[in-house]
Write a structure and sequence with these properties.
The chain is of the alpha/beta class. The chain contains 15 helices and 12 strands. Helix 1 links the parallel strand 3 and strand 4. The longest helix has 18 residues.
């Protein structure tokens, strides 16, 4: 089974990517993931506000009468390192040890901060950048149009300043996801990552305070990503990535069928350990083989709204049945390189008659039904 693919022009052994998280600080764990088939690694985000806070704390330490002053000699050691230096050192370490693309993730708070960190990460050897557009508006005066315009300005400034490809990780909270994706493409982004996971606030009744923490995801979070992938696939030039809710090989297959070029995994590795990635790769290959797809490229986007809305487009069951039939009667080779980015399985089914009994119910009806249902008031809550 050929699982090789490309993301932002970067060759990968599989669409499985170790997403941004604490595992990226553990070289031994990442080496296990790469041996298990990980195609790339995304480092944890470098936050401008954290870098600024470290610089301020270090400045206060030197200015303190107890620790600073001319009578105190402090050697320059890693213990007192602040800023981007530790992150850049880890980036260089991963690049030299892993042999797969290493993507640096960053989150800025000022236009200058975004640019300075982006240039530093590119100079440090990052294969690509992931802009983590993590912003929670709390002011009444913060209009959605202003926030989105500010984010687009950041993307355009960064893509104009660096030469490596840039992916943009966004939240689902946009007025129109297709319009926002098209705007990101015009701003120079090469890929969009769907979706960011925010801190989940809770109330501690003992301390009467609010606590914020990140809970590991479950497969129940995946459908929102699948819906977005299916809507965007084939309708914008961005390469699509799913993150959040990927825990099984079937989860990966669903994301690919809906249009994902890559799938980031974090919670499953934290819950089960880095060996879980090899299991995901094997489950992915087994399911694609069962469905009749000889390579990842032929499965990508089969269930997208665009593909199923084409005149004469066949239903998913017909595509699967035809793929199995063609694979069983003809030895086929998957294209490599850029040609592998888009293979139209439906063209094969039109050249040859589909097997008897293959379903003809279009998937466009199902996705449109989801869209229509989302518009109807249900009387329930939005936080399920």
């Amino acid at each position: 089974m050929d699982l090789s693919t490309h993301w932002m022009g970067l060759p990968m052994a599989s669409p499985l990517v170790v997403g941004a998280g604490p595992l990226c600080d553990n070289l031994e764990a990442l080496e296990l993931c790469v041996r298990g088939g990980a195609g790339a690694v995304v480092m944890r985000s470098l936050f401008e506000e954290q870098v600024t806070a470290e610089h301020r704390a270090l400045h206060r330490w030197f200015e303190s009468p107890e620790t600073g002053g001319e009578d105190h000699f402090v050697p320059l050691t890693e213990v007192l390192e602040a800023g981007t230096a530790p992150y850049l050192r880890q980036l260089a370490r991963l690049r030299s040890a892993l042999g797969v693309p290493v993507i640096a993730s960053l989150n800025g708070t000022t236009p200058g901060g975004w640019l300075d960190m982006a240039r530093a990460l590119e100079d440090g050897g990052a294969s690509a950048l992931e802009l983590n557009l993590y912003e929670v508006p709390t002011l009444v005066a913060s209009a959605g149009t202003d926030i989105e315009a500010r984010q687009l300005a950041v993307v355009e400034s960064v893509t104009s300043a660096v030469h490596v490809p840039v992916a943009v990780k966004i939240s689902p909270c946009y007025r129109s996801l297709p319009a926002s994706a098209a705007a990101l493409a015009r701003a120079g982004a090469a890929s969009v990552v769907l979706f960011n996971r925010f801190y989940q606030p809770d109330v501690d009744l003992e301390s009467l305070d609010v606590s914020s923490q990140v809970r590991l995801s479950t497969s129940g979070e995946l459908p929102m990503r699948l819906h977005a992938l299916a809507i965007l696939s084939g309708r914008c030039s961005l390469e699509l990535v799913a993150t959040g809710g990927v825990h099984t090989g079937d989860d990966v297959v669903k994301a690919v069928l809906c249009g994902a070029h890559a799938v980031q995994v974090v919670s499953a590795l934290l819950r089960h350990g880095p060996h879980r990635l090899a299991a995901l790769r094997d489950e992915l290959a087994a399911r694609l083989r069962q469905l009749g797809y000889p390579c990842i490229a032929e499965a990508r986007g089969v269930l997208s709204l665009e593909r199923r809305a084409e005149p004469g487009g066949v239903g998913a069951r017909a595509v699967h049945a035809a793929a199995r039939w063609v694979a069983g009667t003809t030895e086929r080779r998957c294209p490599s390189g850029a040609a592998a980015a888009r293979v139209d399985v439906t063209s094969s089914t039109r050249r040859r008659p589909a097997p008897a009994g293959a379903g003809r119910r279009g998937t466009a009806t199902a996705w449109n039904g989801v869209v229509r249902a989302a518009r109807r008031p249900t009387g329930g809550t939005n936080g399920g």
